[in-house]
Amino acid sequence: MPNTSTASTASTASTASTASTTSVARRRATRRAATALAVALLAALVPAQAHAVAAAPDTAPAAVPATTPASPHDRLQQDADALRGSGVTGVSVRLTTPRGVRTVRSGAGDPGTGQPPPVNGYLRLGSTTKTFVATVLLQLAGEGRLSLDDTVDRWLPGVVRGAGNDGRRITLRQLLQHTSGVPDYIGDVVPDFSARGYLENRSTTHTSAQRVAFAMTHPPAFEPGTRWEYSNTNYILLGMTIEAVTGRSWEQEVRARIIRPLRLAHTYAPGNDPVLPRPHARNFQQFEPAGPMTDTTLAYLPFDGDADGALISTAADTNTFFAALLGGKLLAPAQLAEARRTVALPDEHGTIPGSRNGLGLRWTPLTCGGGYWGHSGSGIGYMVWPAVTDDARTAVTVSVHSRAGDEDTAVRQLKGVTELVDHALCATRPPRTR
Prior knowledge:
Structural class: alpha+beta
Largest sheet: 9 strands, antiparallel
Order of helices and strands: HHHEEEHHEEHHHHHEEHEHHEEEEEEEEH
Number of strands: 16
Radius of gyration: 22 Å
Number of helices: 14
């Protein structure tokens, strides 16, 4: 993540050695920051670390007593309460089915007042933004304005260069699917993952080109097309590509092509405005194990402001978007099929067995059979988890408003989110017939 001739004299050799050592030290420091951030955020690529610990009795949420089986209605609230019991300050859930809408809340949206999270409050979508961006790219492909097999250099000549990176060998499809090998810039914009670092650096802004330039100081993670690894830089480049193709920013295209047609009145790109509109729950980050919670409701602009994670929305709008996308209302059949063309996620990422990654989408199997599509998003102090069934008839969005500072608790909380989604979607399915 967020890199060194034999010297003609001993002095030159010493200077080169010092520079090399400094470079290595800088890379290691950057990677340590990125690792700390990944642990705290447990970003979109770890949905199934939670599944991996599902069998551990000491980490599972309290089970409903066998003598009082919960109805689907009760189970949704119980799962939200169990998630709150794992240490999350506040939880919000919105479930949309053919029979109607149900919302549940648990904990506090404002711990100072004890008030619950607002019904359908504003949320930071984080990496869920990527699905909106991918949808625009796929629409442009359907219009013949670009090809998914175009190289990055075709639209952004010379942008992906340095430290072994080469945009002439990477396709737009590989960016969309995280098989590009492009290094992630995130570690470079988190110089100090602490409460002090958040407060001191949250207002720092970067252009898309600057974010990509950070990434280009690191070598590729792998040869393009040979592996899968999540990289936020992929979607920064896709946002830049949208502008190169259309002459308009990715935000403008998302608004014109998705937000307006679907009438998503509460979805927008805030640019460098760090404020979350009201009503909203407050977000909190625990920066170290057993440490205090820090209010992180204001955006961390170094990575909250671009095509990889900038959008603000509500659970209602988010459910509408994913149902429309998977229901074929935003993409022609050929492009929707491309979006749903998946690759298996590698075991070393701790994924739920059978999970697969498409173009701006992820497919996750359900315990009751079949699976769901979605793309989670997270940031400092928040996480959202949208999911929609294969038939696009049922959608759920879970939002949690705090993040734990130790990996065990973070994984346990993530497990609570994935179990809630699984239970909610399975409960809406008609019973199987023999």
